[in-house]
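ok here's SCP2 sterol-binding domain-containing protein, seq below lol
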Amino acid sequence: MKFRALLWLMAIMYRRAARNNIKMKSFLIDVDKSILITTAQEKPGRLFTFKDQQINTQSGHQGDAGMTIRFSSPTVGFNTLWSMATGKDKNAFMKAIQEKDVVIEGDMMMLMWFQKSVKYIR
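and the structure came out like this:
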């Protein structure tokens, strides 16, 4: 439940940053990316679409994603994203990948882009 709530909160924070944060707006220039964040059980999940300096999100797994971030469990997903989003552990994502708690499917370069984007929603 906490993982689902965090994904929902990230969606709100991303949309707010895209509207109000000048640095985020310039970060989104010429960006056309979609990222699905989910678990190995594929519940819950949220698709983030970054296009035309706007961010749209939807729950579930509808649409094609350029990259899928698949956590081994909702707890691992929450802990990793929370550490990354709050700035408590900038290497949380890389640790989770090394420990095989996260599987990245698709364009790996988008992972670097995603990690940079998170700093604008803090």
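fwiw Helices lie at 2-20, 22-27, 74-86, 92-98, 109-118. kinda neat tbh
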